[in-house]
Amino acid sequence: MSPLFSQTEVASEKNGTILVRRLGTDTKVIVGDYEQGGAYLTNLWRQALQRIPEEATIRQVLVLGLGGGRCLREIRRRFKKAHVTVVEWDQAMVDIAKSTGALRSKNPPEVIVGDAAEVVPKMTRKFDLVLIDLFTGGNTEPRLASDEMIAGLSRVLEPDGYLILNLFKTVALVPAFEKFLSRHASWHYKYNVLALFRHNGQGRVGEPVPEGFVHQMQSPDYLLGGWPADAKNTELVGKPGCWGMRWHYGPAWIEAYTSDVQPEIDASAHSRMVIWQPITKLGKPAGWHHSWIQMNSQLHGFADIAGKTEHWKEWTDHARRQRKKWLKDDRYETADVSFADFAAAYNKTGKLPTMRKDFLKLLARRMDRHGQNVRLFASRDKVTKEIISGLAVCDLPDVSVSMHLIAFILPKFEKTGVGTGLIDHWYAHCRSAGIRFPHFGLLWAPGDPNSWKGYSKFKRQFNLHLLRYPMPLLKFVKQRSKG
To answer: Where are the domains of the chain?
Structure first.
């Protein structure tokens, strides 16, 4: 037999006869008529892993179904420091992977020989990335569609994690997974169909919000608080469930709503452009037009702390460590402070020189409108009373939301953990005030200024529900003539 070609038959109690076919540097593992290892699978997983964003932190990877082990090489290539755990039910497959070198690495995978349907529900660890490739020949494992199995996968997947499912041709699995997870993408690779899932609340357009969530723009007080008290030609319009604002800008009138309820348009009012920003609603009702640009924030993030007395347990490891560090530091205290003290400390940061004044004007406007519902939290030295960090929030009891307005840290105190400490203080305040949703405001999304990335990364540590908005809808209304 040519040294460039060889074929070995391996007897397996689980998979029958497995062929290991070597042609040059390529090794194919074949069960029945189906490849479970070879260049085809290498390219399939290489392209699949490109779906994971560059900024994603992947430290723990779970692979269900080793096959020929081709995905391991691609995982090591993309996530060099990740620890990989493999679950494979057939010891013969593990032995083949060892013989072909698929398991050799400076950071070798942990291999669990067992049935994934029995192993996963008992797992206590969490994973940033889960790859599922469970087949017997060309058929997916039937129990992969069970509620118990998918609930177990959802439980072991980190809140901001990624799950990639190789369906081959079994697209009927998708609805079963969508009962527990959110499908962010699906695609073909030649003969295979694959799908990418994440937890609900990771920023897919049209994804539902938690039951009971009411958008801050459906608080009339919050809408009015965005305008100066003496603003002319500005009025609240709409009705409960679909409040909006109408204002005069130059020669034009504009009316804007943020709601999943379609606005009812008053044709007797001024000729104007109406902007309707749906929250999760997709599609275009008759008479509306899709905007070509996103006129509003693309992405918001909020937490849901209903029934969570230990809210920090859902934070990232880094955030939990920072909280613990801050609570051990007895040099500082956190308290409500005056606007003058808050503004003076904020100005000391020296950051955002042109925008600081505008932010403080907006904060003062909110205080005039909302009174004691605007809280100015500051962490300060217990002895000198020097403020080292601050957080301004606006409570909206009518929608059970507390809005993040301004935050700052004096540069020399950035490593104390005070930023996380203030978020912890805010969450505790929300619980005591009976507010369910601490709202972090906008987060960075592609197309936004890169300067937003750092603080957005900080915000994402706190197990946020990410709300990505559909494109807004427009309608041009001509005033109906009187008589």
So the answer is: 5-198, 216-296+473-477, 304-463
276 close to 288: Cβ distance less than 8 angstroms: yes
Q: Using CA atoms, how far apart are residues 170 and 139, in angstroms rounded to an integer?
A: 8
The per-residue pLDDT for range 190-238, each reduced to its tens digit, is 888 999 999 999 999 999 999 999 999 999 999 999 998 888 889 999 9
**304-463: same fold as 5-198?**
no
Helices (H), 302-338: 317-328
- Give, for 302, the enclosing helix (H) or strand (E): strand 299-302
Based on DSSP, count helices (H) and strands (E) in the chain, helices before strands: 12, 26
Q: Averaged in consecutive runs of 10 residues, what is the pLDDT profile of the chain (483 residues)?
A: 68 72 72 71 92 92 86 91 91 79 79 92 94 77 87 94 90 90 94 93 94 97 92 92 92 94 88 95 95 90 95 93 96 97 94 84 95 97 97 98 97 95 98 98 91 92 96 92 60
Q: What is the b/e burial string over 434-471, where b = at least 16 CB atoms within 10 angstroms of the residue's CB? A: ebbbbbbbbbbbeeeeeeeeeebebbbbbbbbbbbbbb
Q: Which two tokens stand for residue 379?
A: 């962490």
Decide: 173 and 144 in contact? Cβ < 8 Å: yes
- CATH code linked to domain 5-198: 3.40.50.150
- The CATH number of 304-463, from 3.40.630.30, 3.40.50.620, 3.10.20.310, 3.40.50.410, is 3.40.630.30
Number of CB atoms found within 10 A of residue 136's CB: 17
Contacting residues for 325 by C-beta, under 8 A, at least 6 apart: 416, 417
